[in-house]
Amino acid sequence: MKKYLRWVNCTLQMCKGQRLDQFRICFDLNKFAQREIDKWLEFAFSRKVQILELDLNKGGECTRDFDYCYAFPARLLGIGDSSYSFSFKPHPNNHQILPLVKQNFKSLKLLLLKSINVTGEVLEFFLRNCPFLETLVVHGSGTLLNLEVVERELLLKNVPMLVEVDILGTPSTHLLDDISSRLSCILSQLEVLTLQDSGSLFDLSHEDLEHYNFPELTKLKKFVLTTFRSTYKGEDQSLLGCTSIIRAAPQLKEFVLHVSIML
Fold first, then answer.
1. Across the strands, what pairs with 110?
2. Which residues contact 250 (CB under 8 A, 6 or more apart)?
3. How far is the C-alpha of 130 from the C-alpha of 182, rounded, in Å?
4. Nearest-CA neighbor of 51 among 134, 167, 127?
5. Cβ(184)–Cβ(214) under 8 Å?
6. Do the Cβ atoms of 195 and 222 come closer than 8 Å?
7. What confidence tens digit (pLDDT) does each residue in 216-247 have?
């Protein structure tokens, strides 16, 4: 790990003064590399990076234990603990971490964070301050307990370039209810829609479908549905629930269906 850290530091030294469109770290790093990764993020953000990928999965594949995950430094965004947010934090070799709250984050288009502890407050910051954000991926975070997006007008107003959405339904909610009530304002701009349903789509009848009135998905080209069918409910089950979305997408070119059987 130390060899890799030195290599990245040396590489960044050679890139001083250059614009940075993409910054990608894919290596087996944990919280013990916190200080070094903090410096790398400051470097990337100060150069108005467009694509930022931090894949710190254990061995490159497995999600790391939350207690050992690198924590995204909220102080770089000027949020969180005020004792860090507005003060210099010295590093070895006289490097100083500065709060980047006044930096321009509008260039960010893709943000991928794997095996990184990130808070809802940090994600809310990016959603509110990155109007060109197209893709946001968070995987294996042990600190993402609450994420508040006030209404869905925030997505339409601040992320007009959003073209791909992956939605996970929970057993306590109906997936189509979530889509029609919370995501209707962005459906018309989507090109790829992926739904992971807990099985609620199997319970819909023709009468139920009349309740949903989706806006026309004029740009949707790919629709991926992963759902679960319970055998204890008998054979009288269908996937009528997905037809509302298919009918609303005149440009649909690809429909992928994955059905898992729950015994």
1. 51, 135
2. 216, 217, 218
3. 20
4. 134
5. yes
6. no
7. 889 999 999 887 766 555 555 566 667 778 88
CA-closest candidate to residue 59, choices 138, 137, 115: 115
Nearest by Cα to 1 from 22, 24, 23, 31: 31
CA atoms within 13 A on the CB side of 67: 0
Whether residue 127 contacts residue 114, with contact meaning beta carbons closer than 8 Å, is answered with no
CA proximity to 249, closest of 195, 174, 171: 195
H-helix segments, the chain = 2-14, 34-46, 82-85, 120-129, 153-158, 175-182, 206-209, 243-247
pLDDT digits (tens, 9 = 90+) for 139-195: 888 887 766 655 464 444 455 677 888 776 544 455 666 666 667 777 788 899 888
Question: In the block, which residue shows the tokens 């960044």?
Answer: 12
User: Which of 204, 214, 208 shows the shortest CA–CA distance to 181?
Assistant: 214
Q: Tell me how crowded residue 234 is: count the other CB atoms within 10 A of its CB.
A: 7
132 against 81, higher pLDDT: 132
Return the closest-CA partner of residue 135 out of 112, 116, 158, 155.
112
| Prediction pTM value | 0.57
DSSP assigned state of 32: G
